[in-house]
Every structure is written in C-alpha cells, then in structure tokens.
Amino acid sequence: MATVLKVFDRWKQFLHDRVEQAEKFGMNDDTISKLAVQIGEFLADKVDPENKEERILKELWDVADENEKNTIARLMVKLVSPEKL
After folding, report:
1. Pfam families from the entry (predicted)?
2. Where along the chain do its domains lie?
3. What is the C-alpha to C-alpha distance for residues 49 and 23, in angstroms, rounded to an integer?
4. Rounded distance, CA 11 to CA 28, Å?
5. One digit per residue, pLDDT tens: the chain, 85 residues?
6. So what CATH class is 2-79?
C-alpha cells in the first residue's frame, strides 16, 4: 500500500510542478484547466493505469461527459495546489 501511495504522490508532485511551470509562463487558471482536460484525454486513451488511484480516475473519466471532465481536470489541478501538497 505504501508503494502505491508513493507512486500516486509522485504523480501529484509531477502535476504540481507542471501547473507551477504553466503559471510562471503566465497561463491563467482557465488555460491550465483546458490543458488538464487535454492531458486527461491523452492519458485515458494512451496510458494503462498502474495503480488503483489511476484506475479510478480513468473509470471516472471514461463515464464523464464534457462538463464533468472539465470538473475532474479542475479538481486535479486544485488537488496539487501548493496548499494541498
């Protein structure tokens, strides 16, 4: 279980770093969320989930409509905000 959490924590740190980088380039929250949706689409289509957290996210993504995917993407960005890490 600890290994899975470490892997998911690494994923969150990676995502945090990318969001921070986008902010430094002057991207606003709306643009970052749109990019997160594009990344979510890519991951759902091309990457096999490696742990239960990723599997749950993929299953949620697969059943979500466009508005729900936008919400999931915004929540993932919010999850990795500095105050959450």
Report:
1. DUF3243
2. 2-79
3. 27
4. 22
5. 445 456 778 888 888 998 999 999 999 989 999 988 998 898 888 888 888 888 999 999 999 999 999 999 999 999 988 765 5
6. mainly alpha
